[in-house]
Structure to design on (492 residues):
DNA sequence: CAGTGGTCTAGACCACTTT
DNA sequence: AAGTGGTCTAGACCACTGA
């Protein structure tokens, strides 16, 4: 019985990842691609696609002529920067049990630079939501989202604590496709430090980002601050030329 | 005449990227995949691989049923975090004309935490190289590399200013395959601030990273500091599930 | 040398968008 | 309905690794 949603490739990937985490593949050697293809009744191409994704996210590594192996180190990375989609899941991946507190919801007239970033005219109504993510009553992340009001079918409220991409699917008429983010080092000012429960002047990472939908229209302008002592970001860097069928 | 190194996929990617930058494809619409395959005399799979890479790095975006389009915003991103391989090229991509100054080269006994990170015994000789990257005599990046001495065939000198991956290829017996990096917010201390030409207490991004070779052996432990006013990192984030043949 | 991953092909069918 | 990208197949040949 073959189910095609999610795609075969995603299913193969999930299957393999589960087995890797469960600890099958003793000695860290993963069966050959042809073997997996036969066993799972899919083509080698599909297996290779799945393996490529696992390799790209650091779960496995491949050696031409030798085989495919589990990457114990990659398995320990909980939050890979390129894959963050909701801060709630980031905290869960860290073993936290996050709660979310909406600090404020307000509608304001858009000013520079936000109207430029969002490609709207100056003065257009902008919904500004400030949220705090906490782990066991300790604040970890502070975010501010700015969304043009006309992208919302339903007004935002103090209860709109769902992840933003979900919120936009249920309350909005644009769906988030990707974020373009800048990483900025800051020292927290009085307000930020108080909300995050640290002393003024603590260094922190800030994300300055714009979220776009499938049509490449800017949908949200977000700024987020992270407590480095509770949440440290990691990533894998490769030479661009060495990527294998990525 | 078909040359197979670099791979066809890379050649197609390079070809398309050049045409995109040159400004062919007026109105931002890129020809259909079948069309490109015919024109370039390769299979559609190869074209798709190339387009997937361009999409992943933000150069284009695709809409099922509609077509493939140039992403003007992505084109403006000079240094994508996941793809940094040499700081020299990062600065060049920013339009800078970088120079490199070796500050010091020394051999010391490895201590914690470096011996753990590099999986060597405490006390093993470690070559420590401190480099400064400058743009027009303004310092931009400060890096410290720690390499187990036994991975070098030739001793490092004050002239070893080549990018580290290149240096290891010519002077070492291990080749860098990937870095695993942590992103840390810091305020620069006296020494760092003086070297980078900013005031003490300036916030900055630091990379704490370990470079591995193909066999997953740790080869180098590096720490780097960046002047945010001269070099800002960007990245693209996508939901993990939505990736297309990445 | 046999076995592995790396690349590429040609073709099929599907889901979606546009006209 | 026509055209686009999304997925998948089966098979080929190559380059590299290890015994």
């Amino acid at each position: 019985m073959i189910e095609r949603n999610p795609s075969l490739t995603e299913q193969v990937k999930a299957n393999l990842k589960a087995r890797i985490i469960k600890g099958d593949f003793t000695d860290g050697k993963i069966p050959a691609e042809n073997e997996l293809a036969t066993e799972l009744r899919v083509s080698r191409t599909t297996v290779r696609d799945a393996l490529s994704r696992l390799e790209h996210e650091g779960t496995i590594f491949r050696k031409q002529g030798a085989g495919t192996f589990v990457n114990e180190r990659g398995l320990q990375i909980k939050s890979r920067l390129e894959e963050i989609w909701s801060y709630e899941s980031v905290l869960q991946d860290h073993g936290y049990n996050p709660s979310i507190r909406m600090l404020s919801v307000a509608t304001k007239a858009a000013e520079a630079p936000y109207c430029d970033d969002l490609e709207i005219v100056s003065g257009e109504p902008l919904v500004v939501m400030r949220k705090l993510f906490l782990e066991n009553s300790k604040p970890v992340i502070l975010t501010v989202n700015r969304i043009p009001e006309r992208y919302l079918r339903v007004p935002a409220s103090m209860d709109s604590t769902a992840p933003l991409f979900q919120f936009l699917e249920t309350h909005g008429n644009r769906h988030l496709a990707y974020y373009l983010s800048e990483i900025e080092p800051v020292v927290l000012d009085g307000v930020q430090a108080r909300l995050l429960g640290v002393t003024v002047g603590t260094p922190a990472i800030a994300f300055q980002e714009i979220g776009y939908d499938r049509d490449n229209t800017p949908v949200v302008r977000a700024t987020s601050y992270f407590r480095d002592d509770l949440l440290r970001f990691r990533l894998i860097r490769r030479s661009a030329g060495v990527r294998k069928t990525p």
Summary: Chain A has two domains: 8-76, 87-226. The CA atoms of residues 52 and 129 of chain A lie 38 Å apart. Chain A has eight helices and ten strands.
